Amino acid sequence: MTKSALQIARAAYQPKLPKGLTGTVKAVAGAATQSVADQEEIKKLFPNTYGMPLIKFENTDETVDFPAMNVGVILSGGQAPGGHNVISGIFDGIKKLNKDSKLYGFILGPGGLVDHNYMELTADIIDEYRNTGGFDIIGSGRTKLEKEEQFEKGLEILKELNIKALVIIGGDDSNTNACVLAEYYAAKNCGVQVIGCPKTIDGDLKNEMIETSFGFDTACKTYAEVIGNIQRDCNSARKYWHFIKLMGRSASHIALECALQVQPNICIISEEVEAKDMSLDDIVTGIAQVVANRAAQGNNFGTVLIPEGLVEFIPAMKRLIAELNDFLAANAEEFSQIKKSHQRDYIIRKLSPENAAIYASLPEGVARQLSLDRDPHGNVQVSLIETEKLLSEMVAAKLAQWKEEGKYVGKFAAQHHFFGYEGRCAAPSNFDADYCYSLGYAASALIANGKTGYMSSVRNTTAPAEEWIAGGVPITMMMNMERRHGEMKPVIQKALVRLDGAPFKAFAAQRERWAVETDYVYPGPIQYFGPAEVCDQPTKTLQLEQGR
């Protein structure tokens, strides 16, 4: 593998560990837990893994001989910076317990477990990937572990390799699957522990015990650097409005964090849009008003941050999409016979008056995406909707109307960006390198202490890494019942942006000033070497949430 100078230098970086994970570690049990909601239903579904206590790791002088143990690891779902360090932490943790322990990686996600596709991860391989971005050490995949036949196929290879514990590194769905698997293996007394690790750059897997999901820090710093570069360009040319869509289909944590880092003129928060029952026109009018106000000062430029999932949070759009899904599913054959040039009019005639009016107001390209680009289940593929173009086109139309009415005298030209893949495999920041390594090491300690159905937890993360608190949290504690594909299922509750939370309040207190002034911040690239106050900073979100 050819390495850059940065990779060579980063390979020598030794991630910092919480004091509780150094030396000999003992697990201290805390209070018993219950699920965040729907306690009776969750308890009934998870009789073997429900109500377990919180775990905190502390140092001990006791000497314990641990038998050699084979452990499996899976990377599940979308990539997030720091995955390789989680695996490094697991490897170093189990080797410290017993040098003869082995780590096996299942290739391309949970599908590797079912298909018996694996490799042993030796020291030579692990050392190639320390402190690097990506999931390419074993690859990732989106196969869901939900069926008994999958659990049994997985058990075959686990028994063959004598694997006693499996670590699943993933987001809320992947960790829900990990919990189901842990329950199944516990109920059958298979002798296989299952541990989860919290990963998702979207930041929507968090609670009182999981302060942040790994990768969020690096991804936001990566996006903030590029947004800062665009803002500097924007402030230099002074002729474009940049509409920037950011990752975050289910929650707006990335958009909010980036706004706190770069101070854009506008940042839309999907959760606020839903809470205020805002229409698409309300959002467009709000952006157009800021454009007009800045134009009145001679500033025909600015930046707008947009979360990827915005459309699904606009109540009226959600109702339109629901009716479209039902109508097109029921009339698929008839619709397919309509000429493309007549399809829009056909849909407008068939929809309810409220939804027909909204559909008619949409730009041609977006209307087409809503009606034609369906997923295999026949539903709108909201992630494909170019929300940044939708908003800029509608703002342009609104400004043109205002110009005719003499309400607007500026010039409006837009540029469009979508930042997603650019941040998912970035080289992890010092924070994520340390945090991920600690999560992996804590997972090895959970395994050593015989735990299953737990998620690795590292808290107090705005303090120096040595003061972080490592432990484990029962996955059932985070669960509630939600409707999925027409059925009520147990899932980890998604963490949305809280409008009463400190990060949103800090943003809301400043946004009117940012809208008028050009008070951009240019964060620059992630720094790996230098003073701690530059290199080891956690996100603004974490600092505000913890009152730092």
Indicate the CATH architecture of the largest domain. Answer: 3-Layer(aba) Sandwich
Our estimate of the beta-strand percent is: 15-25%
Per DSSP, the total helix count is 23
What's the shape?
globular
CATH topology of the largest domain: Rossmann fold
CA gyration radius, whole angstroms: 25 Å
Total domains, how many? 2
Biggest sheet strand order reads 1-2-13-12-7-6-3-4-5
Q: Helix content range of the residues, please?
A: 40-55%
Binding site for substrate: 200-202, 239-240, 247-249, 308, 421-424
Enzyme class: transferase
Site (Important for catalytic activity and substrate specificity): 173
Family: Belongs to the phosphofructokinase type A (PFKA) family. PPi-dependent PFK group II subfamily. Clade 'Long' sub-subfamily.
Q: How would you portray this structure in words?
A:
Belongs to the phosphofructokinase type A (PFKA) family. PPi-dependent PFK group II subfamily. Clade 'Long' sub-subfamily. Its cofactor is Mg(2+). Residues 70-340 form the Phosphofructokinase domain. The chain has 23 helices and 15 strands. It has 548 residues and is of the alpha/beta class. It has two domains: 55-215 and 428-473, Rossmann fold (3-Layer(aba) Sandwich), CATH 3.40.50; 217-424 and 501-521, Phosphofructokinase domain (Rossmann fold), CATH 3.40.50.460. The strands form three sheets. The chain has a nine-stranded mixed β-sheet, sandwiched between helices. Strands 9-10-8-11 form a four-stranded parallel β-sheet, sandwiched between helices. Strand 3, helix 3 (83-97) and strand 4 form a beta-alpha-beta unit. The longest helix is centred in the middle third of the chain and has 22 residues, at 216-237. It is globular, with a radius of gyration of 25 Å.
